[in-house]
């Protein structure tokens, strides 16, 4: 399903259900590569290069520039997030997996006993006010605070309608709360 | 007609004072009347982000640094993105700014008018015209109120003052007095000292509140009446003057200086006395005398600002702001107490209770909102023309600012279109499922506890019209009975 994030970019969203609803997975995916954008940039840059007569330059310098660009590309691929998925398993816990463009993945797991609740909260940034999904953790002594807020999907910031779908799903799996008892807020 | 009201002020809970509690009480009563109310203020310490108070009163603590006296630095354009975002996501119809000292309120009203949101302003204080700071503030006020749809003042004196200061048309200024939560100020004559006559003073001990007058009165009254004692609550730079007087005339057993009081303690102090003395030199609307009268005390006050409008003549003795006149009135009040001809505390309480209710204030404010919302929105040209009328040079400068503001709005609309901003779901109404009520209840409990914690912390140093006022967190189960307003 296509959804938008707060920056207006399009993301793909999948909600997968396994084992009769005992386990659910929510996946947000960003398209890695936009061909048209790449083509436009490539044409513009090569034209600029031709105009500045870069091909007349000394090859050693050009090679140096090439190496620098390749390093930058690797760093970019290493840090660019293409997929975030939230795996919720009843009585086991929540796992957040972040996949980067280079194929690297990082995972964070929160045990079910440490999940106090999953909530949608609002945050004020310097220029924006956003909704985000967060896990309220308890039982972990973190910087002398027993409760800790773990924000989810921090790389994509999906919009509220998507957050609500995930929220309802998580609540159903973890706390067996159906949609009707949950919907405390109606859209105006 | 239901409105979505955005109250904006630099002064809000956890800060304590007249403006703060005014905003809180008004918001609560408007919520009870079915409107949607949000409050916008700047961050207080680590209190940033979005918080909820009793009955779903949503408060945005914006991450703006405080500059002077709890006010933010007037930068105008930096607050625009956040104010715009709030107006869009909460679908604000009326933006209500409070207090002439609050830069955030002025800035937001300026932005609101350019975003076609109606703006109302409540002025809580009186100003002079002569000194440099007044001249500057008045000029700023003129700019800030030029675009405003309506202005509310707390007394007729305050209205007169504001109309002159900001060169407004008198018909766009309404008078809606403050109110006092009389249920928190009940009389208790048993607390009084049977053998002595107690005079109570509760005010910040600063020049504006007439502490010097008090210092002159104390020795004379104590000499004439051996059974009179003074109970003085409040703190401030002039406290040293009172301490000197006490020292010089050896009145340690008769003059008790309590220091700064928490709002919850004010009633305990008031009920110990028979006479309340207010010697302010300027006052837009004196809440202290209403609280004192509500506790059944006889009130002696200086005839300044809006004070004569506050209580009916038989509940208050008015004196000129000089020692002789104040002494004469205090003498007559003392004589009344000795003869026992003063009014019964409970009768006075009932009368005051009938005069001042927050529900009335909310109802009257609602009438203001109704009247401005039906007016068609002025065109941008008209708005700029209005700004031009401020003054020959200032007018053009303000127009320049407005144009830059519009330009930024245009850029924001392009890079952060309103389709990308989520509209906030409404606060759940009373009929919610058990799980939800449990959640809200715990949230309420949380806010209530943090509220009590914060009440203890701050005494305002700010020059607000009044230091003390009704408690910020009321019992949420308070019944609201609409009262006819005439």
From TrEMBL, chain A:
<keyword id="KW-1133">Transmembrane helix</keyword>
<protein>
    <submittedName>
        <fullName>Phosphatidylinositol N-acetylglucosaminyltransferase subunit H-like isoform X1</fullName>
    </submittedName>
</protein>
<dbReference type="Pfam" id="PF10181">
    <property type="entry name" value="PIG-H"/>
</dbReference>
<feature type="domain" description="Phosphatidylinositol N-acetylglucosaminyltransferase subunit H conserved">
    <location>
        <begin position="85"/>
        <end position="154"/>
    </location>
</feature>
<dbReference type="InterPro" id="IPR044215">
    <property type="entry name" value="PIG-H"/>
</dbReference>
<feature type="transmembrane region" description="Helical">
    <location>
        <begin position="35"/>
        <end position="54"/>
    </location>
</feature>
<feature type="transmembrane region" description="Helical">
    <location>
        <begin position="61"/>
        <end position="79"/>
    </location>
</feature>
<keyword id="KW-0472">Membrane</keyword>
<keyword id="KW-0812">Transmembrane</keyword>
<dbReference type="InterPro" id="IPR019328">
    <property type="entry name" value="PIGH-H_dom"/>
</dbReference>
<comment type="pathway">
    <text>Glycolipid biosynthesis; glycosylphosphatidylinositol-anchor biosynthesis.</text>
</comment>
<comment type="similarity">
    <text>Belongs to the PIGH family.</text>
</comment>
From TrEMBL, chain B:
<keyword id="KW-0337">GPI-anchor biosynthesis</keyword>
<keyword id="KW-0808">Transferase</keyword>
<feature type="compositionally biased region" description="Polar residues">
    <location>
        <begin position="467"/>
        <end position="486"/>
    </location>
</feature>
<dbReference type="InterPro" id="IPR001296">
    <property type="entry name" value="Glyco_trans_1"/>
</dbReference>
<dbReference type="Pfam" id="PF08288">
    <property type="entry name" value="PIGA"/>
</dbReference>
<dbReference type="InterPro" id="IPR013234">
    <property type="entry name" value="PIGA_GPI_anchor_biosynthesis"/>
</dbReference>
<comment type="pathway">
    <text>Glycolipid biosynthesis; glycosylphosphatidylinositol-anchor biosynthesis.</text>
</comment>
<dbReference type="InterPro" id="IPR039507">
    <property type="entry name" value="PIG-A/GPI3"/>
</dbReference>
<keyword id="KW-0328">Glycosyltransferase</keyword>
<feature type="region of interest" description="Disordered">
    <location>
        <begin position="431"/>
        <end position="486"/>
    </location>
</feature>
<dbReference type="Pfam" id="PF00534">
    <property type="entry name" value="Glycos_transf_1"/>
</dbReference>
<keyword id="KW-1133">Transmembrane helix</keyword>
<keyword id="KW-0812">Transmembrane</keyword>
<feature type="compositionally biased region" description="Low complexity">
    <location>
        <begin position="445"/>
        <end position="459"/>
    </location>
</feature>
<feature type="domain" description="PIGA GPI anchor biosynthesis">
    <location>
        <begin position="42"/>
        <end position="131"/>
    </location>
</feature>
<feature type="compositionally biased region" description="Polar residues">
    <location>
        <begin position="431"/>
        <end position="444"/>
    </location>
</feature>
<keyword id="KW-0472">Membrane</keyword>
<protein>
    <recommendedName>
        <fullName>phosphatidylinositol N-acetylglucosaminyltransferase</fullName>
        <ecNumber>2.4.1.198</ecNumber>
    </recommendedName>
</protein>
<feature type="transmembrane region" description="Helical">
    <location>
        <begin position="393"/>
        <end position="412"/>
    </location>
</feature>
<feature type="domain" description="Glycosyl transferase family 1">
    <location>
        <begin position="189"/>
        <end position="336"/>
    </location>
</feature>
């Amino acid at each position: 399903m296509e959804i938008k994030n707060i920056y207006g970019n399009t993301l793909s969203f999948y909600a997968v259900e396994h084992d009769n609803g005992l386990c659910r997975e929510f996946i947000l995916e960003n398209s890695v590569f936009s061909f048209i954008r790449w083509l436009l940039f490539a044409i513009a840059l090569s034209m600029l290069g031709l105009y500045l007569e870069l091909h007349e330059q000394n090859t050693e310098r050009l090679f140096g520039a090439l190496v620098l660009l390749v390093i930058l590309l690797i760093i970019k691929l290493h840090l660019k997030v293409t997929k975030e998925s939230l795996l919720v398993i009843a009585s086991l816990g929540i796992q957040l997996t972040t996949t980067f463009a280079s194929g690297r993945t990082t995972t964070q797991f929160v045990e079910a006993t440490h999940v106090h609740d999953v909530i949608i909260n609002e945050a004020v940034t310097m220029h924006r006010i956003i909704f985000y999904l967060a896990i309220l953790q308890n039982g972990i002594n973190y910087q002398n605070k027993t409760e800790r807020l773990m924000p989810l999907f921090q790389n994509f910031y999906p919009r509220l309608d998507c957050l609500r779908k995930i929220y309802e799903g998580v609540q159903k799996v973890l706390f067996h709360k159906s949609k009707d008892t949950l919907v405390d807020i109606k859209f105006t | 007609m239901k409105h979505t009201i955005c109250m904006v002020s630099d002064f809000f809970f956890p800060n304590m004072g007249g403006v703060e509690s005014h905003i809180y009480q008004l918001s609560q009563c408007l919520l009870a009347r079915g409107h949607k109310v949000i409050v916008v203020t700047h961050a207080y310490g680590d209190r940033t982000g979005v918080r909820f108070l009793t009955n779903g009163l949503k408060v945005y603590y914006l991450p703006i640094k405080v500059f002077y006296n709890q006010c933010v630095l007037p930068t105008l354009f930096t607050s625009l993105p956040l104010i715009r975002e709030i107006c869009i996501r909460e679908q604000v119809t009326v933006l209500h700014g409070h207090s002439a000292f609050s830069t955030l309120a002025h800035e937001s009203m300026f932005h609101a008018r350019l975003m076609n949101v109606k703006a109302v302003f409540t002025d809580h204080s009186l100003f002079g015209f002569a000194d440099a700071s007044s001249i500057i503030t008045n000029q700023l006020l003129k700019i800030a109120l030029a675009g405003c749809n309506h202005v509310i003042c707390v007394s007729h004196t305050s209205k007169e003052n504001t109309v002159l200061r900001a060169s407004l048309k008198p018909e766009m200024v309404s008078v809606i007095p403050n109110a006092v939560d009389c249920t928190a100020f009940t009389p208790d004559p048993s607390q009084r000292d049977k053998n002595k006559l107690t005079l109570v003073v509760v005010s910040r001990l600063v020049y504006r509140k007439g502490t010097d007058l008090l210092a002159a009165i104390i020795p004379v009254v104590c000499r004439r009446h051996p059974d009179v004692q003074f109970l003085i609550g409040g703190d401030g730079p002039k406290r040293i003057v009172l301490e000197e007087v006490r020292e010089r005339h050896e009145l340690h057993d008769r003059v008790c200086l309590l220091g700064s009081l928490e709002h919850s303690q004010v009633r305990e102090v008031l009920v110990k006395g028979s006479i309340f003395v207010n010697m302010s030199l300027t006052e837009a609307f004196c809440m202290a005398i209403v609280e004192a009268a509500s506790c059944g005390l006889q009130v002696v006050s200086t005839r300044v600002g809006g004070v004569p409008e506050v209580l009916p003549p038989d509940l208050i003795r008015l004196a000129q702001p000089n020692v002789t006149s104040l002494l004469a009135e205090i003498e007559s009040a003392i004589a009344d107490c000795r003869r026992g001809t003063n009014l019964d505390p409970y009768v006075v309480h009932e009368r005051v209770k009938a005069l001042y209710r927050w529900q009335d204030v909310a109802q009257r404010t609602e009438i203001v909102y109704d009247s401005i919302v039906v007016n068609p929105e002025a065109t941008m040209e008209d708005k700029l023309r209005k700004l031009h009328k401020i003054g020959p040079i200032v007018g053009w400068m303000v127009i320049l600012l407005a144009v830059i503001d519009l330009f930024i709005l245009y850029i924001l609309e392009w890079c952060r279109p309103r389709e990308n901003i989520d509209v906030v779901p409404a606060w759940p109404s009373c009929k919610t499922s058990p799980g939800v009520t449990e959640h809200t209840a715990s949230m309420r409990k949380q806010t209530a506890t943090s509220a009590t914690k914060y009440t203890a912390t701050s005494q305002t140093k700010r020059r607000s019209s009044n230091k003390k006022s009704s408690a910020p967190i009321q019992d949420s189960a308070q019944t609201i009975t609409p009262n006819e307003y005439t």
